Amino acid sequence: MIKLTDVVMQFPGHLALDRLNLSVEAGQVYGLLGPNGAGKSTTINLVTGLLKPTSGDIQIDGVDVVAQPERARGMLAYVSESVALYPHLTGVENLMLFSRLAGRKLYASEAYECLERAGLQGDAHARRVDTYSKGMRQKVGLAIALAKDARAVVLDEPSSGLDPSASHDLAVRVRELAASGLAVLMASHDLFRAKETCDTVGLLVQGSLRAEWAASEVKDRDLETAYLEIVTDRDPAPQGAGGK
Amino acid sequence: MGSIFWNEWRGLLRDGRGRLVFGLGVLLAALSAWASAATFAAQEAAQAAAVDTARCAWDEREGDSPHSRAHFGDYVFRPSGVMSALDPGLQAVTGRVVFTEAHRQNDAMHHPQQAASGLLRFDRLEPSSVLQVLAALVIVLAGFGVVSAERESGRLKLLQVQGVKPWQLLLGKAAALWSIGLAICFVVVGANVLLVEGMDLGRVLVFFLTHALLLWVVAALVTCVSAGAKRSGTSAAVLLSFWVAGAIILPRLAAMSASALDPLPGRDAFQAAMQEDREKGLDGHNPLDERRKKLEQEILAEYGVQTRAELPVRLGGLIMQADDEYGAKVWDKHFGELEEHLLRQDAFAGKFSFVNPFQAVDRLSMAISGTGLSSHLEFLRQTEDYRRELVRRLNEEDAYGVELNAEGRLQRTTTQDFFLSFKSFEYSPLGLNELVGRQEADLLALSLWVLGATAALALTSRGMAGGIVS
User: Fold this and answer.
1) From B165, which residue of chain A is nearest by alpha-carbon distance?
2) Which one of A31, A83, B142, B270 is CB 3.0 to 4.6 Å from A201, fit for a cystine?
3) Is B297 within 8 Å of chain A by CB?
4) What ipTM was estimated for this complex?
């Protein structure tokens, strides 16, 4: 699981996160919504250990990210908005390289299997990734996460820039990751895809988690209304959902 | 780290620009090795022919008196040494042939730059230049984005989440860049070892290691700058500026500063001062005529005679020897001052080694190859020693190689065997330890650069480890 407790992140002259508490259980997908500058990327950077919090506690499956960063990273996979791969390598070469860097040597057959599971078409496996679409690169990113045998996955705006079909496909893969027992934290702007993909949706505004809803209990329109009202500093809660 | 290392190579060889840069580097390295080996072979052949011609001219000349032979003189050729194929150093401007004769010391002549236009500063593609300038540029071009491109593309985050430690990333990248430079180094040095006969492998190894250290400094600094730059364009601009400053501007600035702050006397002024001292005496109170008269009186007294005609030896030979010995003192004084001046300028220029690793290695490279200032001065010293001994023997033969004939007049006894007994000049190059030992400041500077660049890499990786916002 991923657990953040009273996390504060203070940059010079700017409080990015203010006592953030958030928990993602194994097998769950948590969607972190919020406008630009809300603190989503800071949260992702903190969970991945790329930033150290000013105060508070961050754990991956019980391992403190600050105290034991290497162990924590060993249990965490990361898929960015635009999965950055080595353009001179093929999909399978990228997967094998990133796995080797994570300390896991994959056999070619295992690598092809991971790519298949991530939904990448077979004819693309041995093609250089500079010929890939964004959706295809996201799938290699998911394959890298799968191959790492991680306990938790962090996705940063994964559906941004994808066409509806690719976005839907990604949502399906993310749900499969969660179904395999991983805790999934997904930062997103896409309310509807987040609701479709996530078990829980949290709304982060100016570094504070203003609301948290069970996705299955909120209607699309209510979610949008609540999002807009909270972001524009009105204070409602969507019908049928537990505002926080 | 191995994965990062090999991935850099894969990226270089699979990328069109990478292939072009590396391919051009290797091509130019191979061309320079071939060209320098060919030039070396041609120069050696030409020099061997010239040595033979000079020797034949000496041996075959007949009917000379020792004095006229002293004026006929002899050509002294400095062997360029096999290592000059790797670094011709100052030989390109100092010359390797000196005409030795009685009464005067001549300058070295026949240097390759006489045959080149002064405007063509980059007309030569020497192996040492390829290693010091071109290989460094290839590392810069291949490496300016080595970390910054990872950051720009977002891969840096993924790499770090995958568990790659900053020191592994930077060391792997720096090692890959270094190996690119080393590959060029291998081509240059390896080809020269194969193409030039009789290479001194000990010196070649030291030459290789010295350049390998420079390339490590370049690779480490390129990696640090790339890691510190937010954008690859910034990294490229900074690194190319450093390269231009280190490889092109600072070496010239050092030479110009040394010349401007502590100028050498002009050639004419130097010769005029020598001539004046020779004619007027070292202290200005002992003119040539008086010295000669005094010496003549001393010799006449020594032999207990009143006139030259009564002497059993040729007075001219003794006076010429005395004059030559006096000329040697004058030369020692002036050349000593000039040598001190040159060494002072050289020491001043050497201080730039502490701000520019290219200069430290350039100076060490010349020393290792036996083509630096120390070697040139040593050649001039040995040449002068040879000239003095040549002239001494000829003067003494001129003075004592006589006998009284039946008519009571002096008659020469000098035979052709006497002239044939002269051995040609043989240059004894300084040993590697002595040459490198004289470059203590450059060794220290290079060591500091290596330590500094490695420390910079360590500090950069520590900075990346302390919380990365990429």
Assistant:
1) A70
2) A31
3) no
4) 0.84
CA distances in angstroms from B354 to B206, B219, B358, B443, B457, listed in the order given: 20, 18, 10, 10, 19
Residue A69: phi and psi, rounded to 5, are -60, -40
d(CA A102, CA B456): 26
Burial A100-120 (b: 16+ CB within 10 A, else e): bbbebebeeeebbebbebbbb
How far is Cα A154 from Cα B236, in angstroms, rounded to an integer? 33
| Residue ranges matching CATH 3.40.50.300 in chain A | 1-75+151-244
- Each residue's pLDDT tens digit, A199-225: 888 888 888 888 888 877 776 667 777
Does domain A1-75+151-244 correspond to CATH entry 3.60.20.10?
no
Per-residue model confidence as pLDDT tens digits over A154-204: 988 887 777 777 788 888 888 888 888 889 999 988 777 877 788 888 888
In this structure, the strands spanning A152-156 and A183-188 are: parallel
A82: nearest CB among B154, B164, B467: B154
Question: Domain extents for chain B?
Answer: 2-465
| Facing residue for B158 by CB, picked from A52, A80, A100 | A80
- Write the CB contacts of A123 (distance below 8 Å, at least 6 apart in sequence): none
Q: Chain A contacts of B11, Cβ < 8 Å?
A: 86, 88
Residue B440 CB neighbours (<10 A): 10
* Consecutive H or E run containing B338: helix B315-351
Q: Is B53 on the interface with A (CB under 8 A)?
A: no
What chain A residue is nearest to B470 in terms of C-alpha separation?
A50
Contact A76 B15 (CB under 8 A): no
CB contact under 8 Å between B158 and A98, yes or no, is yes
